[in-house]
C-alpha cells in the first residue's frame, strides 16, 4: 500500500478544553484516553486485590483475610481484570489508533462510542458499589450455579454483578459494531479491507468475536437474574432446571472471551516487531488467516472447561482435539514473528523487550494450555493451581505484556513526549523476574494437588506458596513503576519526534505529528 | 485527490445499514438463547 | 512516497530522517537474559520434581501410571518445541541486532516455509491426540457398579453404603487392588470429588448422578479435597480416603454397619443420655439411639475418625470440645451451632462421642 496524499489539515479544528469538553467529547482519541485511564485505575485496584490474596497465602494458617473476604477479593480480582482492565485498555488503544491507521476522521458512530465508554465506567462503578451494599460477588469470576442462587448467595453481590455485566456487555457490543462499521466503511480511499495494518485487522476480527460471544453471557446472566429475583428455576434442579446449563452458556462466552483479550494483543506485537526489526511483517496473509482461525476455533472448545461434569467420552475427545488445534495457528504466529526478526536490524527499546518477553513466556502459557487440553491429564489437574499458572502465563505475560509494549510504543504519539528508556527497561526486568517467581511455582502446586480458590492450605504446599507471594509482591510493586513512568513521561520535557521509531511506518507514525492533533484526517488520505 | 470532509450521505447510509445488520444479528443470537431456555 | 510494512503491500522505503532516542540496549544482556531464563526454568522444573510432596507423578491408583507416562511424553515433546523457540529467539536477538550498514531484505513471506511450519505443529498435535486416545483406551476398565455414593454437602462429605445399610461421613475405606466404583451427587451446590493421588476427579452436581471408578493400588491414607468452589468453607472441605487390604476393608464395612457402641463409664453414659435430650438429633444420626437427623454428618462411629469437621481439625478430645463450644470460630458460617451447655456437660458429650468407635 502506498500513500498518495495525506495532507495535514490546513485549518486545524479549534481544540475544546476543560472538564466539560472531556465529559461531552465524542472524539475517538479523547475517548481512547478515558478508556485507558479508567482501565489503569481498575488495574491498580485489581493488583491490590492480588497482593491481599497473596498475603493471605504467604504461609499456612494466616488470618489476614476471613474466608468470606478472600472469596470476594478473588472473585472481584478476576472480574475486574477481565472486564474492567484488559478489555477497556485494549479497546481504548484501538479507539485511539485504529481510525488513525486507516485514515478515518473518527469512528463511524462517535456518540455511540462515547456511550460505550460511559457504560463501561458506570458498569464498573456499579459493580464496585456492591462492597458498600452487603458485599461484592464472592462466587468466582465464572460464578457457577447453583452457588449463585438466592438460596446459597443471599446477599446482593451477585445481583450487582449481573446488572453490571449487562452494562459492560452492552458497552462492548456497541463498541464492536462501531469498530466493524468503521473498518468496513471509513477506510482511506484505496485501502482494501485486507490491506489494513495488522493491528486494525486484529481489532476488526476481534469485534466479531465479541458480537458472537457476548449474547451468550447476556442470556446466562438474564436467566440468573430471573432465578434470583423472580424465583424461576433455570439453574435449580428442584424446579426442573440444570446447573450445567449455566456452564455451557457461560463458557460458550467465556472461552472466546479469553481470545478477545489476546487477539488484539497479538495485533500489537505484530505492529511492534516489524517496526523494531526494520522489516515488514513476515506473512501478513497467514497472520490474518491465523487470527481468523483462532477466532473461529475459539467457539468450539468451550467444553474443555467442563471435562469433569460427566461429559460423554465422544464430547471429551472432540473438545480435546479442537482445543489442541488452536496451537497450530498460534504457533504459526510465533514462527512468523521470529521470521520477521530474521535478517532484520533490531534495537531493543522497551516495546521490543516486552514483545520478546511476550513470545518467550506466552509460549509457556500456551504449552500449559496444551497439557490441560489432554482430557485424562486435565481431569487430574482441573481446578488446581496448575490452571491458575496457565491462565496467568497467557494473560499476564501474554496480554498484559503486549499491552505494556503497545503503551510504551504509542505513548509518544498519544502524549508528544518520550518516556524514559531506563525506567521502561527497569519496569520490564522487574516484571519478568517478579512474574516468573510468582507464577512458575504454581505449576508445581497444581501438580502436587493444591486446589484453587482456597484461603488456606495444607502444610505440604507451604514453600512454593511463599515463593509465589514474594514474586507477586515484586511484580505488583513494579506496576507502580509503570504508572510512574507514564506520569513522568507526560510531565517531562523530552519532546518526542513525530516518529521516534525508525521502523514504524503506519499512517499514525508517518503522517501525523506527535502528539496527534485534536482532530485528525479531516481530509482523508488516499492510498493505492 | 482529497477525500470528503465529513461522511457523505452515501457513506452514512451504508454505515447505518451495516450497523443495523450487525445489531439484528446480535439480538437474534440472544433471542435464540432465551427462547431455547425459557420454558 | 511511504509504503506500510504491516499490511500486505509492496516495497518499503525507510525514512532517512527518523532518529531513535534512548540508549543502545545491551543486546548481549537480552540474549544472556534469555539463556539464563531458560536455564533457570530448567533448574526450577527439576527442583519441582525433586520435592517430596504427593503429586500426580507419584500416583497411588490404577490409571495413574499411564497418565504419568503420557504426561512425560507430552512434557518431552513440548520441552523440545519450547527450547527450539527460545533458541531461535536467542539466535536472532544476537545475530540480527542493529547493523546500520546492513541491507535488510524486505521479505514479506515465503509460502513454502509457512506451509512447513503450519503442518509440523498440526502433525505434533495429532500425534499427541492419538497418544492420548491410546492412553484412554489403556486405562479403561470394566465398572462393577457403584459400591457407595458420595454426597457433597456444604462443607462435608456423606458416604452412603445402602447395601450394607449404613452411612458415614468424611472418612471412607476402600480395598486395595479392587475396582472402587463411586456414584457422586450433591444436595446443594456443585462440589467435586478428588483424591489427588488416585487420579481423576468428578463433579458432584445437584440434579445429576455422576460416576467415577478406579483401582486403588498403594495402601495408605490419602487426603481428598473438594475441587469445585462451593462457598465460604470450600477450603475446609476435605476427607480421608483410606486404602487398606481387602480383609481390613471387609472388617471396616462390618464395623460401620454395627449400631453405635454402648457407652462405658459414668461420664460417657451421662453424655449418651444427654445427647438425646438436646437438639443434636435434629441434624445428626447415631444408629441405635433416638437420633435420626440427616442434615449433618452421621456420628454413629465418629470416634473412629481421624478428623473433625471434614478434616478441619484432627479428632482429639480437646479439638472436639473446642468445636462444640464454638464451631463458628473454627469454621465460620458452617451450619453447626454452638452447644450452649456448661463445661462439665460438654465434656460428657465429648467423652461419649469419642467412644463411638
Topology record:
The complex is a heterotrimer of chains A (528), B (39) and C (357).
Chain A: E1 3-5, H1 19-23, H2 28-56, H3 67-102, H4 110-129, H5 157-185, H6 198-230, H7 243-277, H8 284-297, H9 313-325, H10 327-341, H11 350-373, H12 375-381, H13 385-415, H14 421-447, H15 462-491, H16 507-510, E2 526-527
Antiparallel strand pairs in A: 1-2
Chain B: H1 9-37
Chain C: H1 27-50, H2 64-95, H3 111-139, E1 148-153, E2 156-161, E3 166-169, E4 171-175, E5 180-186, E6 191-194, E7 201-204, E8 210-214, E9 220-226, E10 238-244, H4 246-257, H5 266-275, E11 307-308, E12 313-314, H6 317-325, H7 327-330, H8 343-354
Helix pairs in contact in C: 1-2, 2-3, 5-8, 6-8
What features would you highlight for this structure?
heterotrimer; A: 528 residues; mainly alpha; Cytochrome C Oxidase, Chain A; 16 helices; C: 357 residues; alpha+beta; Helix Hairpins; Immunoglobulin-like; 5-stranded mixed β-sheet; 8 helices; 37% helix
Give a verbal description of the structure.
The complex is a heterotrimer of chains A (528), B (39) and C (357). By secondary structure, chain A is mainly α. Helices cover 67% and strands 1% of the residues of chain A. Chain A has a two-stranded antiparallel sheet with strand order 1-2. Chain A has 16 helices and two strands. Helix content of chain B is 74%, strand content 0%. Chain B contains one helix and no strands. The model of chain B has no long low-confidence stretch (mean pLDDT 82). Chain C has 357 residues and is α+β, with helices and mostly antiparallel strands. Chain C has helices at 27-50, 64-95, 111-139, 246-257, 266-275, 317-325, 327-330, 343-354; strands spanning 148-153, 156-161, 166-169, 171-175, 180-186, 191-194, 201-204, 210-214, 220-226, 238-244, 307-308, 313-314. In chain C, the strands form three sheets. Chain C has a five-stranded mixed β-sheet with strand order 3-2-1-5-8, with no helix packed on it. Mean pLDDT of chain C is 86; it is low at 8-26. Classes of the chains: A mainly alpha (528), B mainly alpha (39), C alpha+beta (357). Chains in contact: A-B, A-C. Chains A and C meet through helix 3, helix 7, helix 8, helix 9 and helix 10 of A and helix 1, helix 2, helix 3, strand 7 and strand 9 of C.
Low-confidence stretches of chain A: none
Helix content of chain A: 55-70%
Percent helix among the residues of chain B?
over 70%
Over the alpha carbons, how many angstroms does the gyration radius of chain B reach?
17 Å
The proportion of residues in beta strands of chain A is under 5%
In CATH, the topology of chain A is named Cytochrome C Oxidase, Chain A
End-to-end Cα distance of chain B: 60 Å
Mean pLDDT of chain B: 82
Strand content of chain B: under 5%
Overall pLDDT score of chain A: 94
* Strand runs of chain A, count: 2
Q: Please tell me what the overall shape of chain A is.
A: globular
CATH architecture assignment of chain A = Up-down Bundle
